[in-house]
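Notes taken during the Thursday session

The instructor put the following on the board and asked us to keep it in front of us for the whole hour. The protein is DUF1003 domain-containing protein. We were told not to look anything up and to reason only from what is written here. First, the residues (151 in total):
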Amino acid sequence: MARERLDQPRELRRSFRLYYDPERFGQLSERFARFLGTASFLVYMTVFVVVWVLWNILAPPFLRFDEYPFIFLTLMLSLQASYSAPLILLAQNRQADRDRVQGEQDRQTREASEAEVEFLTREIAGLRLAIGELATRDFIRSELQQVRGPQ
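Then, after some discussion, the predicted structure tokens were revealed:
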């Protein structure tokens, strides 16, 4: 085996990693997770399992592909579960991120509303004080009647 030389650059290593769009993958996982939570999914899985079991019990022996105790069916269901759980967790994490952003926006909106209400409250209090110092029509009439005296 050839030793790496430190005075020469390394050869480029080619990588055969698959590229995937994390956002698109997340959207697909959310759609899948939403589907897993429906009655349709439960009905489809029930029909699938019942057909699988009935086929492997009632079909002629040369057409059966998974004899009792249905090891291949167990493998298929385990495979489905092993993919479903991480996809559901991914969808939940994305939802939690959205909830966190929405909560932050709600907090900012609430703070702005509270500041506006506080400002308006001060303005109303200032107006009340200013009106209290003004002579109102009724006050002027009562003063004029006192000056004129009883008639």
